[in-house]
Structures are given as C-alpha cells and as structure tokens.
Amino acid sequence: MGNKIIFSGHQPNMMPWLGYFYKIFQSDVFVFVDDVQFIKKGSSYTNTIQINRRGDIIKLAVPIKRISGETQNINEITYAKNNWQKKILRTLELNYGRCDYYKEHKDFIFDLINTKFDNYSEYNIHFIKEISKKLEFETEFRISSQIDKGEIKDATDRIVKLAKAVNATHFISGRGGDNYQNHDLYKENGIELIYSDFIDFEYKQYKTEEFVKGISIIDAIFNIGFANLKTHFIEIKKGNKQ
Fold it and tell me: pTM, whole model, 2 decimals?
C-alpha cells in the first residue's frame, strides 16, 4: 500500500476566505487551477475581495482588462493600471485600524498587497503562498497550466489528470462539487473522493455584533493574528478526526 497523498485545487482567488486556506492546510499538494476560463459577466472571486465593515460585507472589485469578443483563461488576465492597491489599503486601514493585531501584521499584509505583478493569476498565487508560509503550512504548491494534462473532457477528467500528475490518492472537494462530479471516474482511477470538513468558527470582530463569515482571511489576521488562526485550523482538524 503506497503513501496517502491528499490533493486539492482551486482557482487562484483574490485574498480568499478561511475555508480556502483550510483546504490548503488539509492537503499535501494544492494545485492552482489557473488555466480555466475567466468569468466575463460581473466580477468573480478572482478579482474581488470581501471584507467586514462593522457587520456589513464590503466587496472591492479590482478592474481588469477585458478583450472584447475573446474568451480568456485566468492566467491570461491582466489588471488595469489605476493604483487599485491604494483604494484597498485605505479601506483596510479605515475598517481594521483599531483591531487587536492590525499594527503587528499591517506591514506584512500591506507589502503583499503592494507587490507588483502584471498578471492577475500570478498576483493572487503569490499572496496565497505567502499567507500559507506565514501560517507554516507544509503543503506543496503546483500550477495547473504548468502540468501536462492532454485533452480535457470535463471537470472530473481535469481533476483526475491533475491528481495523477501529483501522484495523489485522495482528492478534497467542496460540497458543491457533487453537482458536476463523476464519482465512477474517481473509482476507476483509484482516487478516493473526500470532502472538506471546514467548520466556520467565530472570533472577535471589531465593532461587529453579529459575526460576519465568508470574508477574506485578512479579517481574521487583523482580528486574531496568525498564531491564533493556525490554532483554530489545528483544532478543527483534530475535532473532525475524533
């Protein structure tokens, strides 16, 4: 019996929520799926950050360059040069400036946000990897566009080919994955399908009466800090194994 290798993947979202990072924490290998089509209508989590403003969710969309009439993959997207970082930094300062861990982690987070990349996918991947490093995750990161997968038939076929490329025995899926996944294909290829066991936990949020969940990890970092956040992840994982 070979070693158990847990794999998961996701599009390289912008400054993602806690559940995204918990999936990374659970995984031996995490693949950034950057070679899928970017959603044209409205904004997606690839270029949108959600934060808390005293109990309300603020959505900050970063403008991107769209090529009329053409489909673009996420790794082909670039952002408009209009100093969008300044708006995000100012909004974070206004809404988190008095949080318990703001001063301690401000420079680290602000430097990350100010990092210059023309390519959106590269920017998001850099942010996610640096946050994961700060949380002391041991996960190996791979990028889908750099993996030879051959012809892709459907979403499950893509996952299976990525899993094989990283020698995975298990794949972590979100609960919504049941809407499109071919369970038989996993079995045929010897890949066990498991589901993320992330449990939302509440923590002290600045001037917020009812807890706001599903927002960027930046909220937790400024409110409880990296060490406490890592402790929460460890406790969730231990609790779900009991």
Answer: 0.93
SS3 at position 136: coil
116 in Cβ contact with 1 (< 8 Å): no
Cβ atoms 57, 215 nearer than 8 A: yes
**Residues forming beta bridges with residue 30, ordered by sequence position:** 8, 141
pLDDT (tens digit, 9 = 90+) per residue, 61-101?
888 887 766 788 999 998 877 788 999 999 999 999 999 99
Structural domain boundaries of the chain? 27-241
Tokens representing 115? 């990092």
Query: Helix (H, G, I), strand (E, B), or coil: what is residue 3?
Result: coil
Number of other residues whose CB lies within 10 A of the CB of residue 63: 12
CA torsion through residues 87, 120, 225, 173, sign: positive
